[in-house]
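Input/output pair, single chain:
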Amino acid sequence: MKKAVLVMALVFALNLQGQEQKAQVPQISVTGEGKVKVIPDQAIVTVGFQNSGKDAKEVKTLNDEVVDRVIKFLKKSGIPSADYKTNNISLNKGYDFEKKKSNFQANQTLSITVKDLSKYDEIMIGLNDAGVNTIQGVEFKSSKMEVYEKEARKNAILNAQQKANDYVAVLGQKVGKALLITDNSQTYVPQPMYKNGLMAMAADMAAPRETLAVGDMEINTNVSVTFALE
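Output:
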């Protein structure tokens, strides 16, 4: 009885597999790429500063003074309060084993959105003068990013469809509806290229000069598409 049930189950499975194979839709899988190059019109600058000393209150006060100068400078430069924020604040205690003394270090980072890149040099110099001593990163972006991303996505799908048509036309077939679309997109964000360092730039303001090469920002959308064949 058990053998009979096992045989019947095996036959049923084979029949089901055969039906699935017959019902399988002929298809083709291709990748498509859509590129849009734009010139960034904004920058997000992440800066930091730190002070160290023997007394925790003292180093915190020194950092607070830098924050005060930075905020006053940003307001004077016309940067709205919504365009800058504190990212991180820390106060750490360390120990110098050689000198056998404890010390404290206060750190703080700020992110500032510069929506007018013509003010970039002015902002960076002012931040340096206010006490900022590190640039942790500069990210360029476009204020119309969503519009360009949408354009890149359309281009990627059209590119995939064209590839599929090129392949199947040789076989005398036609491309049908899309069965599966997978987005594999990545966005290249250009990093700043300095002709002169920040500190050197701040030290010599005698002659105006261009210190920033923004470059193009490439929005690159990549998709994998599986089409049915007719």
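Strands lie at 27-38, 42-53, 84-96, 101-114, 134-141, 175-183, 186-187, 193-194, 212-213, 217-229. Helices lie at 2-23, 56-76, 120-130, 145-169, 198-203.
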